[in-house]
Design goal:
By secondary structure, the protein is an alpha+beta fold. It is built from 18 helices and eleven strands. The two termini are 26 Å apart.
Amino acid sequence: MAAIIVDFQHFFFFIFFFFFFLLLFSRSIFALKNPKKSPNCVRNLPPSPRALPFIGHLHLLVSVPWFRSLRNLSSKYGPLLYLRTFDFEIALVSSASIAYKVFREQDLNFSSREALAVENSLLFGSYGVAAAPYGGYCRFMRKLMLSELLGRQALERSRSLRAEEMERFRCNLWEKARRNEAVDLGMETTRLANDSICKMIMGKKCSEEAEQVRDSIAKSYALTKKVYMVSSLHKTLRKLGIWLFGKEIKEISSRYDELFEKILREHEENPDRGQKDMMDVLLETCQDETAEYKITRNHIKAFFVDLFLGGTDTSAQATQWTMAELINHPNILKRLREEIDSVVGTKRGLEETDLSKLPYLQAVIKEGLRLHPPAPILSRKSKEDCKIGEFVVPRDATLIVNVYAVMRDPGSWEDPDVFKPERFLVSEEEEDNDKEKAMKYIPFGGGRRGCPGANLGYVFIGMAIGIMVQCFDWRISGGEKVNTEEAGDINLAMAHPLRCIPVVRFDSLPLTKSVH
């Protein structure tokens, strides 16, 4: 991941000087054609740090990691801030109480995201679900996702597919341990997530296409950061930014198009393969003239791009972070292992049906996600002027919810920067009494645009962590502690990938030869 993280500061200065005179010109034209907006005191905007002429608060937004610099701003100026970069207005949310007002009281107004419509692009085009405006298409695809792929009953149906990939994961670690070989856990868990998603949506492991998919995903993350950085500087630069990276956008979209077209044709040519998968369902929907919403092949392809981008890196990063915390807290690791041994024993491997009987494992996963949310920044768009508390968030403003700050808010959490899973071992009565702080834990977002893959995320991370704790001890290459320095801008990555050597705890668990 470190190789694809953009150096935000260098990139910013390059773009800033390159477009400086263009911005001056466009700003002047804009001022001539449009009357000035009401002053802040009339609009009653949220509190705001001192802005610089022309660039606004851009100088406060260039340090990385971005989510930490925004948290520092909020600590100084308040949980709801008004920021501006050139002609972009931003409302920054950094506390559970304000997040509650956004996701519960003003959810519909903030139900859409900033979209970058690139014609015929599967990555930034109008076919995808993630960036689609909230409406009929978005609701239809979400309902389909939950009923056929990500809902509880759908996950129950696909459990055996994930079990095969988890067993392969365990066998791979066992082989590394036998050779006393260090494991790059980020790479291993990325492969596990990628292969599991392939199995669930296509009914098979993408053995031939797996490397192509992983490479395309990595390039997509890097490209997405660059495009959105340029686009967020100034509205005039949006088209220029898309033009600047047009060749890369076209290349990656073409790779996705070829890959998914090949798989679609395989499904069409072999309709009698047995149990239906998600791709079969979408193909039937595409051909159904009476469907609630008419989708095309490009909708299907873009949908799968969204699934891979939304499910691969996030799950892998969350697993890696949680494992790093466990290794750095051996007392917590010991307690978790004792729980797994008491429920599962040492004669068989962990299964998904065991997860509900392992409350401490669930608490460990939640605490890992609280401290290290894979998507630390959520972005929404304000459709209309609206009031949040006593302040007004203007129409067309970009709402940024700093999930990282919300889940480390000292007003909601005791010792917010400490890894302490016990905080999630609460009774139902305590949970009911805490509803006024319902939005203090939002690793998967909130409201009607919250991540529909939350259930799968908990299952995937729980199984991966459970297998690594149950079956192996872990030695750190080059030291006793994992370096948990944070990196990233719109994502939260480990600055130093987690490499450690697995040591087999017991040899009594049978290895399934068929997974090799």
